[in-house]
């Protein structure tokens, strides 16, 4: 901690501001990087759209560490205040019967609302907005209630590379905003809209906010992709390996805006790749058929992605979907071929992700050529329109 304080005071002219001295006890608990992220973000005053998202940070865990950078109100499910949290005093939320116990306060659901421009601590990092604690299963779930535009500051910095051209970051911002809004209309019975993983969109709180990602979000504030007046399923992935897919060849029935197009992802580090497995390696990952002796694709998409594959072994055979074998072997995509050399199998593939919709590395490639974000989006979301939501 002493080293960090010395670094910080050097950068600020040799003294630690009074309002930052009170944060030092918190620094001991949360570490240097999280503390510095909080300081930077508190210095930004940013506009936002008035739409609140529910982002599941943790699901059904035994306990969740929470806190606030400013004094915070603690409310129950009905919105009544049942207590307060002091600023920068960590607390632990645990399950207690049918309730949640937070520093002696108990309720079936608890919401912590920081005062002023306060930030919320959940688990191991800072977030904007509020936190809702829900009794779930045998544990506690923590949901970040956050304005969509502020949420995107982090999503763009988590999904894309902050040093990319601004037009690529703008395209990512619009795609992520569109995807988030689409998710809010899916399951009204679910207690969250999105999580923090690639299952929806990667979200790492204020740790992954950057000047460039904030600029991209603000420059496109409220803009989404629509088709026939409705927000689209704005799928995106890292890199397609040269050509994106028609959605019906990979996921579902056709959608007019998710069509396969030429990609511009040749500069991606995952444009092409290969992994070699021994038959013993494969047998550990794919159980129940003895020692693996062969991998035979049964069905491929028009662009060559594996839809299903037969795995032969000394003790039988098994048919897996492309996604299942991708997960089992931790492959970057299902766009691959298999070759065998003795007891070794080499999987040679291209791209990373499902190959549907916007290619992040393709957006980078187009932006490098000077393509504006509007054209990048219209290329990957065919027939969709860029629409400004009412503020």
UniProtKB/TrEMBL annotation:
It comes from the Bacteria. One of its GO terms (biological process) is sporulation resulting in formation of a cellular spore. Transmembrane segments: none annotated. Pfam families: SpoIID. InterPro entries: Bact_Sporulation_Assoc, SpoIID/LytB, SpoIID/LytB_N. Residues 137-227 form the Sporulation stage II protein D amidase enhancer LytB N-terminal domain. This is Sporulation protein SpoIID. It comes from Synechocystis sp. (strain ATCC 27184 / PCC 6803 / Kazusa). The lineage of its organism: Bacteria, Bacillati, Cyanobacteriota, Cyanophyceae, Synechococcales. The gene is spoIID.
């Amino acid at each position: 901690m002493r080293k960090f304080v010395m670094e910080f005071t050097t950068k600020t002219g040799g003294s630690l501001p009074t309002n930052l001295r009170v944060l030092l006890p918190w620094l001991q608990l949360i570490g240097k990087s999280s503390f510095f992220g909080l300081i930077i973000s508190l210095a930004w005053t940013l506009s936002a759209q008035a739409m609140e998202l529910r982002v599941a940070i943790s699901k059904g865990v035994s306990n969740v560490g929470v806190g606030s950078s400013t004094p915070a109100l603690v409310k129950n499910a009905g919105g009544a205040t049942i207590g307060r949290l002091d600023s920068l005093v960590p607390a632990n939320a645990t399950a207690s019967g049918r309730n949640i116990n937070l520093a002696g306060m108990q309720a079936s659901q608890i919401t912590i609302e920081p005062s002023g421009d306060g930030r919320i601590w959940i688990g191991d990092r800072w977030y904007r907005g509020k936190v809702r604690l829900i009794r779930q299963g045998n544990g506690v779930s923590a949901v970040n209630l956050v304005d969509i535009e502020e949420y995107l500051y982090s999503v763009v910095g988590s999904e894309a590379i902050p040093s990319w051209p601004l037009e690529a970051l703008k395209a990512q911002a619009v795609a992520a905003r569109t995807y988030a809004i689409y998710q809010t209309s899916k399951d009204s019975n679910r207690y969250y809209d999105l999580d923090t993983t690639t299952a929806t969109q990667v979200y790492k709180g204020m740790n992954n906010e950057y000047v460039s990602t904030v600029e991209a979000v603000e420059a496109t504030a409220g803009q989404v992709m629509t088709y026939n007046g409705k927000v689209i399923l704005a799928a995106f992935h890292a890199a397609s390996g040269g050509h994106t897919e028609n959605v019906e060849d990979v996921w579902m029935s056709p959608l007019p805006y998710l069509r396969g197009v030429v990609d511009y992802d040749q500069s991606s580090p995952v444009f092409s790749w290969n992994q070699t497995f021994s038959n013993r390696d494969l047998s550990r990952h794919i159980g129940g058929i003895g020692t693996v002796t062969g991998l035979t694709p049964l069905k491929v998409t028009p662009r060559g992605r594996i839809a299903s594959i037969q795995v032969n072994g000394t003790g039988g055979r098994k048919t897996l979907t492309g996604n299942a074998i991708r997960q089992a072997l931790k492959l970057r995509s299902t766009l691959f071929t298999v070759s065998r050399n003795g007891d070794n199998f080499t999987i040679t593939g291209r791209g990373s992700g499902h190959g549907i919709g916007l290619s992040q590395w393709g957006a980078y490639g187009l932006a490098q050529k000077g393509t504006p974000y509007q054209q990048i989006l219209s290329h990957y979301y065919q027939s969709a329109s860029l629409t400004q939501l009412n503020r």
